[in-house]
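We were asked to recover a plausible sequence for a given structure. The inputs and outputs are reproduced exactly as logged, with field labels preserved.

PROBLEM: sequence recovery
POSITIONS: 157
GIVEN STRUCTURE:
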């Protein structure tokens, strides 16, 4: 049952985080479309002018990879709670999301460093934004697990 919770919550949280990044991309006119960035880098399809690939297969690779990673991190969150690290509430969702965001920022930075042809984006802005996106992920994941597993628990405490 916990695997099902991880899949459902991981999908919901990843979708919320992705929507947050796409909304910011729309509002700020900066490249923050994580699926296109991830897909372009995974398929090594950075255009000669260092822009992102728009091919359907690039988006498919980016989407699948992003959602699989979201489910894997949901399993980590559930493992922490199962080990009695933290509670399934908003405060811990925020803290887990913050820690997750800092880790993601570091891993993305390394990915850009080692990639043979990374796209040119405002990396500093993107990395800082990832922290906030992962806080959204942590809150949505925690709330989804709460709704699935603990309907009598006061979430907002």
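RECOVERED SEQUENCE:
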């Amino acid at each position: 049952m916990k695997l099902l919770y991880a899949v459902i919550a991981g999908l919901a949280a990843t979708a919320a985080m992705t929507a947050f990044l796409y909304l910011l991309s729309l509002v700020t006119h900066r490249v923050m479309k994580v699926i296109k960035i991830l897909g372009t880098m995974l398929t090594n399809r950075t255009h000669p002018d260092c822009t992102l690939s728009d091919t359907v297969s690039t988006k498919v690779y980016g989407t699948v990879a992003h959602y699989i990673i979201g489910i894997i991190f949901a399993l980590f969150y559930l493992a922490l709670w199962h080990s009695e690290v933290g509670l399934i509430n908003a405060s811990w969702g925020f803290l887990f999301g913050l820690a997750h965001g800092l880790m993601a920022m570091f891993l993305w930075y390394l990915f850009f460093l080692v990639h043979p042809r990374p796209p040119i984006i405002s990396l500093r802005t993107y990395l800082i934004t990832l922290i906030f996106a992962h806080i959204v992920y942590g809150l949505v994941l925690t709330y989804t697990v709460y709704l699935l597993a603990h309907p009598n628990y006061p979430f907002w405490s």
